[in-house]
Amino acid sequence: MTVSVLPTPRAKRARADAAATAWALAARGGDPRAAEHFVRALHNDVLCYVVHLSGDPQSAHDLTQDTFARAFAGLHRFEGRASARTWLLSIARRAVADSFRYAAARPRLADTPDWQAAVERTQPRDLPGFEDGVDLLDLLAALPDERREAFVLTQIAGLSYEEAAAFTGCPVGTVRSRVSRARAALERQLLEAEGPAAPAA
Predict the structure, then answer these.
(1) SS (H, E, C) the chain
(2) 127: pLDDT strictly greater than 70
(3) For position 33, what pLDDT does the model report?
(4) pTM over 0.85
């Protein structure tokens, strides 16, 4: 499974948000083409978010499908007061939380002793930016959950700090602090990974 982890410029993200929200509202009115555009516009963002939030690439596609199923079931209540992206990510968050509760109630063993390695072996390796994406996923996995979520919401999913604060239910300053600390930790990890510079000849 390969997901885009590169941030999108704010102006482009704002236009995409407006379009996705318009498609969601049109889909609410029964337009099947708008529903298709709505899914295509936000599918990658939901997939990326649930991968980071759940930490389980195996279940990411199922969680993404569950998120859209829940969204369409509740689409009649969507009024566009928030962007469709913010609304959909809040549904994804609940879907992941529900999956954790279900897994805790009914634990299951993995089919393979090393499922992460099995997933990685199935990935196409010749895509541009693949290695960078894998590196970023590995670095993000090492962050504390709250910092990782703040970073993913603002730097990858493209929410503003204010939207992320409303989404997570904490002050804007807390989100800014978490993102700042996440960036510092990522920079530190990158420097450590590069190791000491080779001495000049």
Answers:
(1) CCCCCCCCCHHHHHHHHHHHHHHHHHHHCCCHHHHHHHHHHHHHHHHHHHHHHHCCHHHHHHHHHHHHHHHHHCHHHCCCCCCHHHHHHHHHHHHHHHHHHHHHHCCCCCCCCCHHHHHHHCCCCCCCCHHHHHHHHHHHHCCCHHHHHHHHHHHHCCCCHHHHHHHHCCCHHHHHHHHHHHHHHHHHHHHHHHCCCCCCC
(2) no
(3) 93
(4) no
